[in-house]
């Protein structure tokens, strides 16, 4: 896969590469935050691990989002006050099921920082805390402490007292439900009415009373996409015979750091050149990629089948297109998964090694988004809960070829910002056709990328997510107050 440049004997070439390298270092340092603190591999919380991310349009308690009408670019005005400013001096307790670099916890941390930004008193607890010496935990806790978020123990008297005192408790992911009884015990009913439950998963085993039996009694549930919210409603009713509380759909937004890289032409170019060079992909070649953890649910196998079909088609039809490549970003050879071995065996059997590139799992997705031409979102079955990588790719002006399932349908406008294909085997040929379409129609590809970017600017920025969350918190606090008065 990774092809390295042979060292050049020419000194001017050496200087050139040294300069490029320096430039890359500068860019990487500039954006280190964006590159490191990212949940790229687990962009789709639902069906992979408990990761997540969100944005929101609220079908349940507010009007549907307006149709995407392109607006002229807005001129950056003076920063307006945060929509969360009413949270100033409120005590908010955030309960995370774990602390790691996966989507769920990172998203809750983003909320912690937004709330700190408006002067809320934010306390954080991690229910399943691994060892003290874990480097990731250590650095994340320090990051929080540095930004004024108090990190407290999830157990014991302090935990209970903080929960009782808090104006609002945010419970993150279904699994965190275990914390309620384990820690609050007989006081749990005092805390439920002011608890907002943020849910990012859609996998079957979360529909268990062990986790969610208190769900009907919390102030509200906040869920990443309409389809996931509907799924929760169906499943809890049918399987568990419990009723969802008031449910808010909150689509995610892109972080400011990611947008900064995406909108920096120089950074993008340097990252693009560097990544392409390391993969052995020429500047004019067309690079399709899936950026997700490698697993059957993410559909890398079907993607490779489609890619192979499109190579055959291009050859048969003698189409004049630049060489096309496929990248699987999220590979983990050490995991020795049967699935990944299958992918590699397929590539060998079809003799397409020169066209397919496996890239190790990484949290730094920005360089790959800068380097590719088309993002393929091939999640299978119910699809993604939301799929943050999709809006991240759109920020980089990339068209999306996505399965017609899950949150992808709420992000992608078919025919405008990308093209949908069916899940499963029936999607293989349609995806192959869509790949050939984007390879042959350069203008179409670029226009789709631009439309995607416009859509991100309209509704998938951190600012939008902040507005959506603010509306939810306002409503929840209002109801808490009304209930207290009624008692
Ligand atoms: C929920 O149930 C309704 C009615 O049974 C069905 O039409 C809908 O597709 C289901 N939604 C999900 C997401 O499962
Ligand atoms: C990818 O990961 C494998 C296993 O950890 C390692 O041996 C290999 O060097 C890595 N490749 C690159 C390009 O970093
Ligand atoms: C997406 O649009 C294409 C045409 O642009 C159409 O053929 C296809 O059926 C659409 N798919 C879905 C799921 O709407």
Automatic annotation (TrEMBL):
Pfam assignment, any one: Glycos_transf_1
Transmembrane regions listed in the UniProt entry: 21-41
Record Gene3D superfamilies: Glycogen Phosphorylase B
Key words, A-Z: Glycosyltransferase, Membrane, Transferase, Transmembrane, Transmembrane helix
Protein name: Glycosyl transferase family 1 domain-containing protein
Renumbered residue ranges of the record's region Disordered: 57-79
All residue ranges annotated as the Glycosyl transferase family domain in the record: 273-454
GO MF term list: glycosyltransferase activity
């Amino acid at each position: 896969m990774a092809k390295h440049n042979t060292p050049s004997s020419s000194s001017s070439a050496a200087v050139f590469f040294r300069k490029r390298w320096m430039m890359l270092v500068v860019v990487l340092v500039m954006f280190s935050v964006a590159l490191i603190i990212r949940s790229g591999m687990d962009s789709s919380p639902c069906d992979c691990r408990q990761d997540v991310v969100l944005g929101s349009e609220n079908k349940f308690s507010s009007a549907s989002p307006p149709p995407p009408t392109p607006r002229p670019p807005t001129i950056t005005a003076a920063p307006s006050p945060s929509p969360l400013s009413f949270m100033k001096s409120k005590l908010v307790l955030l309960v995370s099921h774990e602390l790691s670099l996966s989507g769920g916890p990172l998203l809750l941390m983003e909320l912690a920082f937004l709330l700190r930004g408006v002067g809320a008193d934010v306390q954080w607890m991690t229910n399943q805390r691994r060892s003290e010496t874990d480097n990731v935990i250590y650095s994340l806790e320090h990051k929080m402490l540095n930004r004024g978020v108090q990190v407290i123990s999830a157990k014991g008297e302090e935990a209970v007292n903080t929960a009782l005192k808090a104006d609002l408790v945010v419970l993150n992911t279904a699994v965190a439900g275990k914390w309620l009884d384990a820690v609050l015990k007989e006081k749990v009913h005092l805390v439920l009415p002011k608890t907002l439950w943020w849910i990012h998963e859609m996998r079957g085993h979360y529909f268990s009373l062990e986790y969610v039996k208190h769900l009907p009694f919390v102030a509200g549930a906040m869920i990443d996409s309409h389809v996931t919210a509907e799924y929760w409603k169906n499943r809890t009713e049918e399987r568990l015979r419990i009723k969802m509380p008031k449910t808010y759909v909150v689509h995610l937004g892109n972080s400011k750091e990611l947008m900064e890289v995406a909108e920096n032409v120089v950074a993008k170019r340097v990252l693009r050149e560097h990544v392409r060079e390391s993969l052995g992909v020429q500047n004019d070649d067309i690079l399709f990629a899936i950026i997700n953890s490698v697993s059957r649910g993410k559909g890398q196998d079907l993607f490779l089948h489609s890619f192979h079909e499109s190579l055959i088609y291009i050859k048969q039809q003698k189409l004049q297109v630049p060489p096309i490549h496929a990248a699987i970003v999220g590979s983990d050879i050490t995991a020795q998964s049967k699935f990944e071995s299958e992918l590699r065996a397929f590539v060998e059997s079809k003799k397409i090694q020169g066209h397919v590139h496996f890239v190790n799992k990484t949290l730094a997705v920005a360089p790959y988004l800068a380097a590719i031409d088309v993002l393929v979102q091939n999640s299978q079955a119910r699809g993604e809960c939301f799929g943050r990588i999709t809006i991240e790719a759109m920020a980089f002006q990339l068209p999306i070829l996505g399965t017609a399932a899950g949150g992808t349908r709420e992000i992608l406008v078919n025919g405008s910002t990308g093209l949908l294909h069916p899940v499963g085997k029936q999607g293989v040929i349609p995806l192959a056709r869509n790949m050939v379409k984007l390879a042959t129609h350069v203008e179409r590809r670029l226009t789709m990328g631009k439309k995607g970017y416009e859509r991100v600017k309209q509704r998938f920025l951190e600012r939008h997510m902040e507005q959506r969350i603010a509306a939810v918190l306002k409503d929840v606090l209002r109801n808490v107050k009304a209930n207290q008065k009624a008692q």
